[in-house]
Design goal:
644 residues, alpha+beta, 6-stranded antiparallel β-sheet, 5-stranded antiparallel β-sheet, 18 helices
Length: 644
């Protein structure tokens, strides 16, 4: 992997800094995790406080509102709202109702407004609305205008809470008022009933709040009350959105917790000042930052000292590689100066890397040159032996012993153009590369002689099995080059020998076989073991050449072959069987299947197309012949093509 650091010093510095930062990062992670736990605990504790406060206020409001039901069940109340006019009986019932109201909880003030009679009944007495209003002016000097008071008194309410003044007989301050309107029905008159709950009763429930905390009571999405443990807080009356609380957060930062009430129109919000809880944590954070800063300063000093000490041997090595004999000048000067070339050297990694790869490149080049020369000398020596020339310079490098089985395979590669040396070299390379891969795992020497390529094999297996594999590889090479490149390559495989002195004889046999193949069709492979003195080899070569040229003909048979070479069908069948060990039709089927395998590997044709291209009248006959020859179906061969 390529280094991206500017120098060894930079690399080491980064490593030391990373090591130094590990405990620092661990401390910060632990600090952040601790803060998170503390915050969660504080939030949970305050959620519990809010739940308790909300439940207490809900129970209080629910208890006070329940007085409404009790009052409506009183007989005198029913008598009053059943009155149609202000007569003596009406005033008598009103007096009885006023006495009954005074028996209830004095913290809650009842106000009943008979809308059709324009009559008000409350804890402080009963009278027509205008006289009741005038009576309120006596104890309370700052009374709202009569129109404003009547608008609140005669409004329509549906089991609602709201903030209002002058709905409690003891105070003119804002109260939490519960209102409900009952329209006229049957014998009952229409009336409004109000329960005034003083805020002071709710303030008693907030004494447990911590200093600075505020409990907001919202009604229909607006801030109705802001209660703290020190009294009413300063918020706009009934206008500030309950979750905005801008007036509270002008000078302090708050945490906000919310809770709903048993009533849909009432909500609670607990505002907790953050500075009450984070003061100690801020001090711990400041101490932590100070200790980390001191640790980093000490660590940087130690790292600079270690870098200066450790870099000196590396600097000396690099200067020797660069041929620079100037002494070092310390960490920040010994490799930042200019070398003899005048160029600034700033990357020791790159310098060492370049020197190493230059050395390895020179080594590989020399190794390839030696191997190439060794192969050429071996090929020249073997070629000289095969041609009968006495060269003994390589006897100690190539061990040819008596009793060692050897065979020679030769190929004639037609050169494309004598003037186009590059194309000719590519052609020779292609043939050599393909055949070498096909015979991988076998021991052989490669011999190059212009248009000819020879391979001297040392056989270690049984003759029949080894020879068959060699023939298959040679035939596949010739057919592959012919079909893919359109170039005819001739091949010949010699018989086996077990004496080095017989090399020149098998060489002559291979050369003769190559010439015979070239004369017949200029493509294909000949097995030297199939030749004899009766001339049968010539008949066999003629048969092979004709079959190679007409294998795709579905009407190809022994009679057509015999007619083509002017021989008797029975005679050529017998000669071919004696020479090759197999029948003509067996060879035709084997050749067709081999051609089919090449076409299947190309992946360009369907099985039906291939069956017609290799000479089978039907795909069914082709599949049966393919399975008989290869032991598998064409479909299996497509999925898992075996290597040669």
């Amino acid at each position: 992997m390529k280094m991206k650091k500017r120098s060894i010093v930079t690399g080491w510095l980064c490593s030391y800094v990373i090591i130094l930062m590990i405990p620092v990062v661990a401390i910060f992670i632990n600090y952040a995790w601790s803060i998170r736990i503390i915050r969660n605990e504080i939030f949970q504790a305050n959620h519990l406080v809010l739940d308790n406060l909300g439940d207490e206020i809900d129970r209080y409001l629910n208890r006070e509102v329940s007085l409404y039901s009790y009052l409506m069940q009183e007989k005198v109340f029913v008598n009053v709202i059943s009155s149609r006019k202000k007569d003596a009986q009406f005033y008598y019932d009103v007096a009885a109702l006023s006495a009954t109201i005074r028996k209830y909880d004095q913290e809650v003030s009842f106000t009943i407004y008979l809308r059709e009679l324009d009559y008000v009944i409350g804890n402080a007495g009963a009278n027509e609305s205008v006289y009741y209003y005038n009576g309120m002016k006596l104890p309370f000097s700052d009374v709202a205008p009569y129109e404003e008071w009547m608008e609140a008194l005669s409004g329509e309410y549906m089991d609602d809470f709201f903030l209002g003044r002058y709905f409690h007989h003891r105070t003119d301050k804002t109260c939490l008022v519960y209102g409900n309107s009952v329209n006229r029905y049957a014998q009952y008159e229409a009336f409004n009933l109000f329960l005034g709950i003083p805020v002071s009763a709710l303030e008693e429930l907030t004494r447990s709040l911590s200093d600075g905390s505020v409990l907001l009571v919202g009604i229909n999405g607006e801030t109705a009350l802001a209660l703290s443990n020190q009294g009413i807080s300063n918020v706009p009356d009934g206008q500030e959105p309950v979750w905005g609380v801008s007036s509270l957060t002008e000078t302090r930062e708050y945490m906000e917790l919310r809770k709903g009430s048993f009533r849909s129109d009432v909500e609670y919000c607990l505002m907790i000042p953050k500075d009450e809880f984070w003061r100690e944590l801020k001090q711990a954070r400041n101490v932590l930052f100070l200790s980390v800063a001191v640790t980093l300063l000490v660590g940087i000093f130690c790292v600079s000292f270690i870098l200066d000490r450790n870099f000196k041997p590396v600097d000396l090595l690099i200067r020797k590689l660069a041929g620079d004999t100037d002494p070092g000048k310390g960490l920040f000067g010994m490799w930042r100066g200019k070398g003899k070339s005048g160029k600034r050297k700033v990357n020791e990694y790159k310098f060492i890397e370049d020197a190493y790869f230059r050395l390895m490149g020179e080594k590989n080049t020399m190794y390839r040159y030696i191997v190439t020369q060794e192969e050429r000398m071996q090929g020249s020596y073997l070629l000289a032996m095969m041609k009968g020339r006495a060269i003994n310079t390589m006897e100690n490098r190539i061990q040819l012993q008596n009793g060692q089985k050897m065979a020679l395979a030769g190929f004639k590669v037609p050169l494309m153009d004598e003037k186009q040396f590059l194309q000719d070299e590519v052609m020779l390379f292609a043939v050599d590369n393909i055949f070498s891969e096909l015979m991988e795992g076998h021991t052989f020497y490669r011999i190059d002689d212009g248009q000819y390529l020879f391979y001297l094999f040392f056989a270690e297996e049984e003759k029949k099995a080894w020879k068959g594999q060699l023939m298959k590889a040679a035939e596949y090479l010739c057919s592959f080059i012919k079909e893919r490149l359109g170039i005819s390559v001739c091949g010949a495989v010699s018989s086996m020998i077990d004496e080095p002195g017989q090399l020149r004889f098998i060489y002559q046999d291979v050369m003769e076989g190559l010439r015979s193949v070239e004369l017949l069709k200029k493509s294909g492979v000949v097995d030297i073991d199939g030749r004899d003195e009766t001339g049968g080899s010539g008949i066999v070569q003629s048969i092979l050449a004709y079959v190679e040229a007409h294998f795709e003909d579905s009407d190809l048979n022994i009679s057509t072959i015999a007619e083509e070479i002017d021989r008797n069908p029975k005679y050529i069948s017998r000669v071919f069987k004696e020479e090759t060990g197999e029948g003509i039709l067996d060879y035709v089927n084997r050749l067709r299947i081999r051609k089919a395998q090449v076409l299947i590997r190309s992946g360009e044709f369907t099985l039906e197309q291939i069956s017609g291209m290799v000479g089978y009248a039907s795909s069914k006959t082709f599949r049966r012949a393919f399975r008989k020859e290869t032991g598998m179906t064409p479909g299996n061969f497509v999925a898992n093509p075996p290597g040669l």
